[in-house]
Amino acid sequence: MSEVVEFKEAVEKKRIGWGSEKAKVTKEYLDEILQKFGDKIKDFKQVAYNQWIITVDRNDVPEIVLYFLNHEGWKETQLSTMVVNDERPLRGKFSITYWLSINGAAGDFYLGVRAYIPEDDPKFISITPKHRGANWYEREAYDMFGLIPEGHPDPRRLVLPDDWPEGVYPLRKDFHYSDSPPGKKFYPYKKPKDNEVIVPYGPYHVALEEAAHFRLYVKGEEIVDVDYRGFYAHRGIEKIVEGRLTYDQACFIAERICGICGCTHSTAYCEAVENAAGIEVPERAEYIRSIVLELERLHSHLLHLGIVCHLTGLDVGFMNAWKLREHVMWLAERLTGNRKTYGMLLVGGVRRDLLEYRRSLIEEVLKDLKSGFGEFVDNITFTRTFVKRCESVGILPYRIAKELDVDGPLGRGSGRDFDVRRDHPYAAYKYLDFKVPVYKDGDVMSRAMVRIDEVWESIWIIEQALDQLPGGDILAEYKEIPPYQEAIGMTEAPRGENIHYVMTGPNNKVYRYRARAGTYNNLPAIPDMMRGYTIADAPLIVASLDPCYSCTERVQIVDVESGKVRVLNEEEFNRMAIKASRRV
Amino acid sequence: MPVTLKYPFVKITAPPEYRGIPQIDPTLCIGCAACVNACPPDAILRIDDYDRGTRKIVLDIGRCIRCARCEEVCPTRAIKLTNFFEAASPDRRDHVEVVELRLVKCKGCGRYADFTGRQVQKALKIVPKEIIEKEALDDKVYLCRDCKRKETVDFTIEASKEVVP
Amino acid sequence: MSAKPKLKSIWVFHLNTGSCNGCDIEIIDVLTPYYDIERLGVKLVGSPRHAHAMLISGPLTRQAYYGAKMAIKAMPPEPRIMVAIGTCVCSGGIFYNGYPIYRRPESGREGNEYPRLGGIIELLKDLRDEGVKVGPVIYIPGCPPRPEEIIYGIAQLAGLVEKRLSYQEYSDEFVKFRLPEGPVEERIVLTLREKLRHVVGYLDRDAILEEFMKLVEKAEKSENPREELRKLINEYSSKQRDMRIVFCMRLLESEYWRIKDAISAGKEFVYWI
Question: NADH:ubiquinone oxidoreductase-like 20kDa subunit domain spans which residues (chain C) (predicted)?
Answer without folding.
Answer: 20-157
